[in-house]
Every structure is written in structure tokens, then in C-alpha cells.
Write a structure and sequence with these properties.
single chain; 10 strands; three-stranded antiparallel beta sheet; five-stranded antiparallel beta sheet; alpha+beta
């Protein structure tokens, strides 16, 4: 590894997918996409919103985050997660926690898709407030209910590459071919 490349451990804050209301468990849908391919994003949004599940979407460091504050029963959550994994396979992501700590390249704006006009699902007012605060904007949504949120801290590797060194090394490897 290039000595000018910086690698460090960083503590991140995440939000867990499970919540409870009156002793009943519900789940939030979290999808992490590690590609900037818009067709993947569009396919996922189309599938999720066609199920009348509202979502918050924003560009993340490597791709996109899709967060649904809609309260899903466990079986529905499992079915949706399974299809999301078929649309965008990600064997490293289990849909159980989403990062809410900001990274340097995260977008400063988000998009809200209220897909539940028939109010099929209740929506977590508490989760909406987290993202209203994060993006400094109001998210209009009927059919909200206060829920408890569970946060978790986890350690992540942050790698800062020396771009000049990497470009030079790639050129050397190409010349060796």
C-alpha cells in the first residue's frame, strides 16, 4: 500500500431497522446501493413504491441510500428485502442497519416519494424527523405515528487514496502488460 494512503478506523452512527408500537414489532426498509447506476436506482424505487411503500432517497458516498419510514410487518419486510436483493445483489448488506452519519461525499439533498396515497402503511414520524434534521427540510406526510428508534455505533474503515500514486501505479501495470 502507498505510504501516502491514509487508512483509519472511524466510528459511525447507524439506525436499526426494527421498531415497536404498543409491543408490536415493525420494520423499516433500508437499501444500500454501492453503484451510481441510475437504472438500478430506478428499478428499486419503482418496485418499492409500487408496493405503496414511501421512501427517502439520497446519493451516498458510493451510490444511493433508500430509506422507508413506512412500518412493515416482518413477512412483508422479508419479501421486499428478497426482491431488492434480486434487483441489486449485495451480499455484504443485510438491510438491518443504515448509516446516518455523514460521509464527505454524501449528497446534501434528498428526495421524498410518498407512494402511499391510500395510507396502507403508517409512517414513523420519529424517523422522518431524523431525516428532516439531516437534510434541513420538512417532509410532508399524513398517517404518521411516533415510534422508538434504535441507534447503533459501529466501526468502519475510511481509506483516503493518493490519487496521483494510484494513477502512476496503473500506468506502470499497463506498461508491464
Amino acid at each position: 500500500m502507498n505510504p501516502k494512503t491514509k487508512v483509519r478506523h472511524v466510528e459511525r452512527l447507524g439506525l436499526e431497522a426494527v421498531t415497536t408500537i404498543q409491543s408490536r414489532a415493525f420494520f423499516f426498509l433500508f437499501v444500500e446501493i454501492d453503484t451510481k447506476d441510475k437504472s438500478v436506482l430506478q428499478s428499486l424505487i419503482k418496485y418499492i413504491t409500487n408496493r405503496k411503500i414511501s421512501v427517502i432517497v439520497y446519493e451516498s458516498n458510493k451510490g444511493y441510500h433508500i430509506i422507508s419510514p413506512s412500518l412493515l410487518h416482518f413477512q412483508e419486510w422479508l419479501r421486499v428485502v428478497k426482491v431488492c436483493q434480486q434487483i441489486y445483489p449485495n451480499s455484504f448488506y443485510y438491510h438491518d442497519v443504515i448509516r446516518i452519519s455523514n460521509k464527505k461525499n454524501d449528497s446534501k439533498e434528498m428526495f421524498w416519494y410518498n407512494a402511499d396515497f391510500g395510507e396502507t402503511h403508517q409512517v414513523s414520524e420519529t424517523l422522518l424527523k431524523v431525516y428532516e434534521s439531516k437534510f434541513e427540510r420538512k417532509i410532508p406526510c399524513p398517517n404518521t405515528v411516533k415510534t422508538k428508534l434504535s441507534f447503533t455505533k459501529y466501526e468502519d474503515l475510511e481509506i483516503e487514496w493518493n490519487v496521483i500514486y494510484v494513477k502512476k501505479r496503473i500506468q506502470e501495470l499497463i506498461l508491464d502488460l
